[in-house]
């Protein structure tokens, strides 16, 4: 059994090679978990990658707000289900306005976080230089 060739999936390796494999993998994970590339890759992202979520939230909010405006204006016309339009119109107006404001507030928060990351890049590079020796 000891002289048999190892299987392709590597399940019949010696205990020494298993230890080497697991320790090598663990050290690689520890080193790469907080490497500098994590911090530098954030600054290379395009503006769309950074701001796409708030832009989508603002767009959906604006569309729901406009839909609420149309439904509310329909309640002033002489249409059958006037009470339904009077209830649903303000609900869509408020929901759309809430999403629009959330998106508008989200953008300055992202800008502030970007500035903090730029400031901390220098400190992270110093920290990694001294602690990874």
UniProtKB/TrEMBL annotation:
Parts of the chain that traverse the membrane: 55-79, 91-110
Gene Ontology MF: a single term: phosphatidylinositol bisphosphate binding
Residues covered by region (Disordered): 1-22
Localization per Swiss-Prot or TrEMBL: Membrane
Composition bias type Polar residues, residue spans: 9-22
UniProt keywords, alphabetically: Membrane, Transmembrane, Transmembrane helix
Broad class of the protein's primary localization: membrane
Cross-referenced Pfam families: PIRT (PF15099)
Topology versus the membrane: Multi-pass membrane protein
Coiled-coil intervals: none
GO cellular component: plasma membrane
Kinase found in the keyword field: no
PANTHER family: PHOSPHOINOSITIDE-INTERACTING PROTEIN, PHOSPHOINOSITIDE-INTERACTING PROTEIN FAMILY MEMBER
Record's protein name: PIRT protein
């Amino acid at each position: 059994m000891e002289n048999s060739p190892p299987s392709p999936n590597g399940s019949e390796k010696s205990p020494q090679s298993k230890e080497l494999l697991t320790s090598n993998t663990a050290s690689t994970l520890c080193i790469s978990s907080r490497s500098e590339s994590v911090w530098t890759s954030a600054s290379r992202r395009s503006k769309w990658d950074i701001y796409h979520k708030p832009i989508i939230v603002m767009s959906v909010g604006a569309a729901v707000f406009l839909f609420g405006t149309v439904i509310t204006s329909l309640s002033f016309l002489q249409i059958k289900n006037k009470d339904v339009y009077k209830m649903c119109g303000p609900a869509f107006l408020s929901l759309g306005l809430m999403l629009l404001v959330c998106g508008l507030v989200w953008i300055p928060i992202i800008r502030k976080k970007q500035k903090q990351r730029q400031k901390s890049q220098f400190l992270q590079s110093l920290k990694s230089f001294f602690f990874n020796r």
